[in-house]
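User: I'm new to structure prediction. If I give you an amino acid sequence, what do you actually give back? Let's try with this one:
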Amino acid sequence: MATALPLSSVRELKALDSAGNPPFASVLVIRKLAAKTASNGNSFLSTELGDRTGSFGCTVFNDNPLFELFKTAGEGGVVRVEGKLDTFQGRLSPRLQKATVISEAELASTPGLIDNLVETAPENPEELWKDFQGFIAGITHAGLRQTVQLVFDEIGESFRWAPAAVSMHHAYRHGLLEHTTHMARACRALLPVYPEVDADLAMSGILLHDIGKTIEYEGSLATKRSRRGILQGHVVLGYQLVRKAGLKAKLDPDRLERLEHIILSHQGEPEWGAAVYAASPEAVFVAKIDDLDARMGMVQRALRQAQVTDEFSERLPGLSTSLLTKPVPPTE
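Assistant: Good question. You get back a string of structure tokens that encode the predicted 3D arrangement of the chain. For your 332 residues, that looks like this:
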């Protein structure tokens, strides 16, 4: 009887030498699954498989016995895969040979299995939430503070668990909380440099800027856009939540309009999802801090996932380049 292969994490697979195409086995989440057609007319599945340590892409053609299994399991499905290590254009791209779907009952009954699959924010979420609540309490304008609090009262716990994106930045559990808290910290540090920016409006805008993502995204093991997320997007969904709360709090019309403008413009460019360009000091301030933390979030994640022997990461679409991950040498 053949000996079962030990399970390897994605990080461990990327650290292995693929020369000779050694065999491997892993339990992974199907993060993305897209049906496509090749130039010769044959259909195939473009997949992204991952666990808490990273992810990789692979292609499953329609003549592969695993084609229907992956298609049926769908995004968010958990599979035990076996295959041989391989690379494509310098990236891990294994050749899959066997796969079985892990049932929900097995997921629930196997200690630590879900924890091994779900990537989470590196910071303690309870500490992040404590810090976040302090930023709300620090808003001195009563109407703005009440507006912010009413929004979080309405959405409940979802904000604390949601990712900040499907794949680009802070795309993991508690990622939205981490991203927003980091932005609030940057805001607090930078406000003294820019006295033209109203501190309460800027902080309120930062705390609320991505609130629509609690509706836009869904899924526990793999994140995808919800029906409302596809039809309206998080900018519009966030605007709706903020306007409703502002009216309930009886926030004065001028401040409410300025706060709404921050939500509508924070994406920076229309092609990135902004409804309008930032046209107030606070909106420009928030949009640039958002862009800064999004990009640095990509940097931080790439550094966490880098191998000791790596000099550069894989190409990061959000940065349009690979990242130098080798640390700066110590000062002599």
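You can read the tokens as a compact description of the fold. Here is one thing that stands out. The mean pLDDT is 90.
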